[in-house]
Amino acid sequence: MEIKNAFAGTLESGDILIQIAPAEGAGLQIELDSTVAYQFGEQIKKVITETLTGLGINDASVKATDKGALDCTIRARVTAAAVRATGKDVWAD
């Protein structure tokens, strides 16, 4: 699946900015910048990975700048960025 640069989200409190770009190698490379990474970093990366693989994206570079987003917000932002990056509308019938 071809991926172009795309992003979704904001840097507001309670949100997360997700930036997706073509992978430089195989697999998902996730770079996380979060003030709560020590406590929730693994969970945030897990949600990002599960969301992308569920959408059929297995090779991408992801930069996530978290400002305390909940899992549902992370899923929504990752999905929106993935739709923009691939052009594949996951909400269409």
Multimerization state: single chain
CATH overall fold name: Ribosomal Protein S5, domain 2
Q: Please work out how many helical segments DSSP would assign.
A: 2
In the CATH classification, which architecture applies? Answer: 2-Layer Sandwich
Strand order of the largest sheet: 1-2-4-3
The count of domains is 1
- How does the major sheet shape up? 4 strands, mixed
How widely separated are the two ends? Answer: 20 Å
Please tell me about this protein's structure.
By secondary structure, the chain is of the alpha+beta class. The chain has a single domain, classed as Ribosomal Protein S5, domain 2, CATH 3.30.230. It is built from two helices and four strands. Strands 1-2-4-3 form a four-stranded mixed beta sheet, with helices on one face. The longest helix has 18 residues, at 37-54.
